[in-house]
Amino acid sequence: MRSGLVQLGAWTAATGAAVALSWLGVHAVLVDTVFEQPVAVQLPSVASSKQGGPAGPTPPVPPPSSAPPSAAAPSPSPDPDPPAGAATPAAAGSSAPARPSATARRSSSPPSTLHSYPMLGGRVALDVRATEARLVSAVPEAGWSMQVWHGDQWLQVNFSKDDRVSTLMVSWNGTAPNVQTFVVGN
């Protein structure tokens, strides 16, 4: 009996020491971690429709003028050379086209609208534009499987579980996108 109590005591001490050591290791890693609530990030298509519509022509002019000062902080030597001399406009041109191409994309892309479709078995988010639709996300619920098919002028998302299939179909063959949802099965 005494031998069993000694073994139990040794096991308890070893287990307690292992738990304490593990906790100290985890605590040392997590002590500097800050946990924040998730923040919804604005999608580029939504931002482009807000910025590109009313202020599309005006913002492209200010960002290039404000871009060299912001670029001057990270790399002071390349920035003073482009304004001072004409020998390095290629360097300035390489940084400048990045911003105009982004602004050109914003101003040239038609406004888009994001639509979320809650369905039996999951949720589908689409970026529906005047002449096309794009899949943003499709998330199945627990226990459901998902399949996605797409072509040049159509898109289909299926959520299936057992004998039930929930389908979202979008077609835009030269017309505005047409979204249809239906359920097959019990």
How many domain regions? 3
The share of residues in helices is: 40-55%
What's the helix count?
5
Order of the strands making up the biggest sheet: 4-5-6-7
Helix and strand content put the structural class at: alpha+beta
Oligomer: single chain
Report the uncertain regions: 46-107
In angstroms, what is the radius of gyration? 29 Å
- What do the pLDDT scores average to? 72
Query: What is the straight-line distance between the termini?
Result: 63 Å
Judging from the principal axes of the Cα atoms, what is the shape?
Answer: elongated
Q: What is the H/E order?
A: HHHHHEEEEEEE
Strand content of the residues, in percent? 25-35%
Tell me how many strands there are.
Answer: 7
Main sheet characteristics: 4 strands, antiparallel
Protein name: Secreted protein
Organism: Kitasatospora cineracea
